[in-house]
Amino acid sequence: MTADAPTHEELAELVAAAGRVADHSSLRPWRLIEMRGADRERLGKAIAKAQGDRRPSTKPLRAPLLVAVVVSYRKSGKVPHWEQEAVASGVAHTLSLLLDEAGWGVIWRTGGYTRAKKVAKAHGLQKNEALLGWLYVGGKPAGKSAGRRKPIDVDAVLTRMPQKKRR
């Protein structure tokens, strides 16, 4: 990715649109953390501590903007935690599509250290929150075509409900 990135205002507009995902009971069980500049360096130090490394991780420096995706669990008798994680994931996925459509390069990164205490502390997570990963956002290099996934076999993944067998 190049050093270009959407401004805070451009990002905020896309987040407002992404936040309209399906959300059982409208709990809004998510939040996003915008990380630029020194924030990424602090994240690199936290990742290193979580992994027992002496040198800061350079992974967060691979893009000029990182957006941490956080699930903020809400108390609910109807909406289990897995469904709240699905909502937060839906926001992240929708945001990644919107960023791509707006011309930005975007990659969703995760890793075992997303659930490490030192990484959670660096993000200021509360007891009811968990980090799902980061969207790495930056400019698309000129002349480089975006990698596309291979077409899927729709018949293998789109099926019908089994019919009751008649005797």
Specify the structural class. Answer: alpha+beta
Question: Residue-averaged pLDDT, rounded?
Answer: 94
Uncertain spans: none
**Overall shape:** globular
Widest beta sheet: strand line-up: 1-2-4-3
**What's the SSE pattern?**
HEHEHEHEH
What is the number of domains? 1
The helix content is 25-40%
CATH class: Alpha Beta
Q: Helix count?
A: 5
CATH architecture level-2 label: 3-Layer(aba) Sandwich
Rg from alpha-carbon coordinates: 19 Å
- CATH topology title: NADH Oxidase
Largest sheet: 4 strands, antiparallel
First and last CA, distance: 61 Å
**Would you count the extended β strands for me?**
4
Q: State the assembly state of the protein chains.
A: single chain
CATH superfamily: NADH Oxidase
Content of β-strand? 15-25%
Characterization of this structure:
This protein is an alpha+beta fold. The chain has a single domain, classed as NADH Oxidase (3-Layer(aba) Sandwich). The chain is 34% helix and 19% strand. The protein has five helices and four strands, in the order H-E-H-E-H-E-H-E-H. The protein has helices at 8-18, 38-51, 81-101, 117-123, 154-157; strands at residues 30-36, 65-72, 104-109, 129-139. A four-stranded antiparallel sheet has the order 1-2-4-3. Helix 2 runs antiparallel to helix 4. The longest helix is centred in the middle third of the chain and has 21 residues, at 81-101.
